[in-house]
Design a protein that fits this description.
75% helix; 2 domains; 152 residues
Length: 152
């Protein structure tokens, strides 16, 4: 009987499960505002903050998650962040975890964020043909690239 009670008791370093959306949002906001670099650098920040410090998941689970994210197309840090938010606080946690790669970049680079928002509106709200959206975004990107030279 004593052995069964000990087996059900979690280890001191076991990952914690379950959380609130606000907790996920705060963690990824901090990561988004203080981390620098590309997706591979973000994975290191995620590991230090969420595996080592906060113990949201164990080492093996994190390594497996990173390996899976490398296999799938797209930025690894976005996929890992969304998966961490999803496992911690459900679908709302996944959206909160998007703050790191998406919204923080939008704050730092408002021009790119505006182009992305415009593309979303054109495609999904106003049902614009996709080829026209590509042309619009290409012209907008070129205009953004030329802006620093406007006062020369």
């Amino acid at each position: 009987m004593a052995a069964m009670q000990q087996a059900s008791k979690p280890a001191a370093n076991a990952p914690t499960r379950g959380g609130r959306v606000g907790e996920v949002f705060a963690a990824f906001l901090r990561l988004g505002l203080t981390s620098f670099g590309g997706p591979i650098a973000h994975l290191g920040y995620f590991h230090e903050e969420l595996v080592v410090r906060r113990k949201w998941l164990d080492e093996k689970t994190y390594v497996d998650l990173v390996a899976l994210s490398q296999f799938l197309p797209g930025p690894a840090s976005s996929k890992v962040g969304i998966a961490l938010g999803l496992s911690r606080a459900g679908y709302a946690g996944a959206l909160a975890a998007l703050y790191n790669p998406v919204w923080t970049s939008g704050i730092a680079n408002a021009g790119d964020f505006t182009l992305g928002a415009a593309a979303f509106l054109l495609l999904f709200i106003w049902k614009t043909p996709p080829w026209l959206v590509v042309v619009f975004c290409a012209l907008g990107g070129a205009a953004l690239a030329l802006m620093p030279f406007g006062n020369a």
